[in-house]
Amino acid sequence: MPRLTRAPWLAVAGVLLASLSSPAHASHDDDGFDPDNRSQAVKGFNLTVKGQGAMEWGKQQLERSVISTSWGGGDLEVHDYKTTGVDWAAQTRCKDWNALWTSCDVFTIQFNTAMYHSDWEWLVMGCHEFGHTGDLGHRSKSNDTDNNSCMRSSVDTAYYKFDSHDLNAIQAGT
After folding, report:
1. Rounded Cα–Cα distance for residues 143 and 73 (Å)
2. What is the C-alpha to C-alpha distance for residues 21 and 93, in angstroms, rounded to an integer?
3. Rounded Cα–Cα distance for residues 79 and 44 (Å)
4. β-strand partners of 152
5. For 5-9, 89-93, 126-130, 153-157, which range has the lowest pLDDT when averaged over its residues?
6. Runs of H (alpha helix) within the chain
7. Is the pTM here over 0.90, yes or no?
8. 107: Cβ–Cβ under 8 A, 6 or more apart, which residues?
9. Residue 166 in contact with residue 149, Cβ under 8 Å?
10. What is the per-residue pLDDT across 44-77, written as a single tens digit (0 to 9) for each?
11. Using an 8 Å Cβ cutoff, are 86 and 112 in contact?
């Protein structure tokens, strides 16, 4: 297909895909960070003790959803880095998109060791970043009315696991 006519078809496909989202998923979607399947292999690289704990907790929270996890490699790569001059404590990025750019084959989770966090805050970050790999977006007070999701934008030790809305959104979106 010539390059000039491909763009309109991609736009139409994007609108159709967006219209198929269920209501529970639509308000919680992370704008295209869909995993490529419901089976994800997790591997840590150069993790501190707290980074290891965050990875294990995040993996455990993802296991509560329809996504099964295993240890190994290839799907979720978790790293600790000391990154100064930034205001984020952790981030999730897609390292390798599938051929159609519709789902992520390999995610990279990065914990920033330049920021100080308590043990509980590390667990929250693990849950939160692993939630992004399950296609969860950020929650706010307006869409987390029971006030108990680790997907809140701010790190708070009161929100250290997925709530039922998060689990339903993962199921609807993957």
Report:
1. 34
2. 22
3. 6
4. 139
5. 5-9
6. 3-19, 23-26, 49-63, 119-133, 164-173
7. no
8. 33, 35, 75, 76, 77, 92, 93, 94, 95, 132, 133
9. yes
10. 999 999 999 999 999 999 999 999 999 998 899 9
11. yes
61-76 burial, b at 16+ Cβ within 10 Å, e below that, comes to: bbeebebebeeeeebb
Give the sign of the dihedral formed by CA 10, CA 15, CA 20, CA 21.
Answer: positive
Region of 123 please: left (phi>0), alpha (psi -120 to 50) or beta.
alpha
Residue with tokens 């501190």: 48
Residue with the two structure tokens 């390999």: 106
Rg (CA), the chain: 16
Amino acid identity of residue 164, one-letter, is: S
State how far the alpha carbon of 67 is from the alpha carbons of 17, 39, 106, in Å. Answer: 21, 6, 15
Segment 10-57, tens digit of pLDDT: 343 343 333 333 333 334 554 457 899 999 999 999 999 999 999 999
